[in-house]
Amino acid sequence: MTSVLLVANSDECIGTGEIADHLIACIEAAPEISQCRRCGTADLQTYSVESDSLTVVYLPEMQPVASRMPDLNRVSETIDQIVGLHGLSHLVVISDAAVYGARPHNPGLIPEDQPIKHGASNRIAAAWGDLEQLVTARCSAIDSVSVTLLRSAICLFPGDRTYFGRLFQARIACTLAGHDPSIQLLHPDDFAHAIVCAIARSPGGVYNVAPDGVIPLRPALKMAGVMRFPTPRWPQRLGRSLLGPSRASPIDQIEYIRYSWTVSNSKIKEDLGFRPVHTSPNALRSFLDGYANERSASAPIAQYDDLGLDKGYLDAYGRTLFRFLNDVYWRIECVGAEHIPSEGRALLAGVHRGFMPLDGVMSMDMIVKHTGRYPRFLIHPTLIKFPFQFNFMTKIGGVIACQQNADYVLGRDELVGFYPEGIQGAFRYYKGVYKLGRFGRNEFVRMALRNQAPIVPFVTIGNAEIFPVLGKIKWNWWKRFSMWPVFPIAPPFPFLPVPLPSKWHVKFLEPIHVEKEYPPEAAQDPEIVRAISDDVRAKMQAAIDEMLARRKSIFFGSVFKD
């Protein structure tokens, strides 16, 4: 049995005193806990501890104006007092998933081992990072004390006056125009359950605490009856500077409603047995109801894709804009779609040209219409950096290109689209544009082997002519701003950024069943990986050469018909 001391200052911890009261009630109800007492941070110096094996749960003091930033000076003083307590064996510190920052580079469902690269770019993320470093440094020299850091998703408590609590209780909310990120909302009972799991089973370490399921910001505000006022970032910065730090949350907070920063709860489930009961929509409904009843537990609430795909959104474009582009503007012809598996996982390896993501967008639409399946294409962060482009690319199925996202999608037996040449392939000079370049580090082969998924190559001709790259300018400012490697000179871009109406031809090749020939461990063998990559590249190049040999005109005719 474990004796627990909850250290929380009622007015300056995460939320209000009701949080501490709720946590104590939940902790005391756990069979693994013998007793749970509460102590204010100001009373620690004179607090008497009777137990020889004490677990301390610490809710850090916060800075004013509900900014979700820990007060590091107060935290430092409190940690010094905690580590001096008699019998301390385990320290559980409540951190925040905001430590990862909110950036276009973030994958979906960030794991605990994700490098934290916020630097000084986001003060909220930096403050939580400094808190974790402070706690780790102070406790590292004490061998008898294990430290558990719980990085919590947004937890909505009764009477919550933190940023998100006020956001969902306001009449009008200033959001970022063109950004509708997925967020995670944690129910207080699940938050308390995670703490109990950490007290009873954690050997120390870092764990994310998050619910199962997400909710996009827009439907969350709609559920709360809050009117959205989409506003660009610069007016919000101006407004905060005029209101002053005593009346407005810092501009850094806006990043958390600009980009997705969802975290994975797999580790805490596997290691500590944490099982969240409430989904994000359910937690929000309970918060709005004041936790007075369980109506939200039984009321039907929409479920949302963890990585942001909105099938209805994609289907709507498929009936309108994409249909026009496919049937009228580019007159796309497609063969070999039967090679795409009707079920199960597969990796689609294609060729990206024209530097704009239009060929990827049309491929998504084409696959949906031919197979009824919704692929996820791995995309460069630049495609979600800017307003409206973020919403568009995310909702039609684009996910940040990384091993984690690919493994997640393939692990659910879905389709992943990938361009092996990377972003450099999109900026190839028009002369020789249909000669395939290097396939980077051949990561697509490793993805397929690791997940035992067949590779379905596909090639396109005609997409290179929509914006033929005739020159490149290496411009450092542009590279930082857009995250493009160069500024392309590609008529009619940039004077009239309307793609040329070339005729497209798409061919899906027969699957390469690497899963039948190699085990998952083959992903670690560079010779096998290189041989598979070379085979895929050769087949794609042969298909392109054959199609080009049959093409009579860039704008007219068919290469698939005699």
Q: Can I get a quick summary?
A:
The protein has 562 residues and is an alpha/beta fold.
> Which blocks of ≥5 consecutive residues have pLDDT under 50?
none
Task: Estimate nothing, just give the exact number of structural domains.
Answer: 2
How large is the share of residues in beta strands? 15-25%
Major sheet: 7 strands, mixed
Fourth-level CATH superfamily of the largest domain:
NAD(P)-binding Rossmann-like Domain
Neighbour order of strands in the largest sheet: 13-21-18-14-17-15-16
- Our Rg estimate from Cα atoms comes to 26 Å
Mean pLDDT over the residues: 89
Number of helices: 20
CATH level-3 fold name of the largest domain: Rossmann fold
Q: How would you describe this protein?
A:
It is a single chain. The protein has a 7-stranded mixed β-sheet with strand order 13-21-18-14-17-15-16, with helices on both faces. A 6-stranded parallel β-sheet has the order 2-1-3-4-5-10, sandwiched between helices. Helix 1 (17-29) packs across helix 5 and helix 2 packs parallel to helix 3 (123-139). It has 2 domains: 2-291, NAD(P)-binding Rossmann-like Domain (Rossmann fold); 311-550, Glycerol-3-phosphate (1)-acyltransferase. The chain has 562 residues and is α/β, with parallel strands linked by helices. The chain has 20 helices and 21 strands. The mean pLDDT is 89. The chain is elongated. Helix 14 links the parallel strand 15 (376-379) and strand 16.
